[in-house]
Design brief:
The protein has three helices and two strands, in the order βααβα. It has a two-stranded parallel sheet. It has 103 residues and is mainly α. α1 packs antiparallel against α2 and α2 packs antiparallel against α3. The mean pLDDT is 93.
């Protein structure tokens, strides 16, 4: 009389959010869906554990978590590259020139 195992739709939502986070990570907007995926993954992991095996989707959850972290890393990398490029641009522009003999 045990129920049949059922796939977790929340685990698939974590995967989808993680995938969106990965794809939009280089645009820095991927931080939002990736963060939502990580927040939702904690709840889904707890639900999968409590279900005792009757709720499946652990693979979707692990893949979604990995994709979300990859999206966050891509967004951070993009920000670091942008800051370095801006600093190099500012450093390359000449400053204010004074006339010779000006104190």
């Amino acid at each position: 009389m045990d129920p049949d195992p059922v796939g977790s739709t929340k685990a698939r939502a974590v995967f989808a959010l993680g995938l969106v986070g990965l794809l939009t990570g280089p645009l820095v907007g991927g931080v939002i869906p990736a963060t939502l995926a990580l927040l939702l993954s904690r709840r889904v992991h707890r639900e999968l554990w409590v279900s005792g095996g009757y709720l499946t989707g652990g693979r979707w959850l692990r893949r979604g978590r990995a994709l979300a972290w990859a999206g966050i890393v891509l967004a951070i990398t993009t920000l670091v590259i942008a800051v370095i490029a801006a600093l190099l641009h500012v450093a390359g522009t000449p400053g204010q020139d004074f006339d010779p003999g000006t104190n």
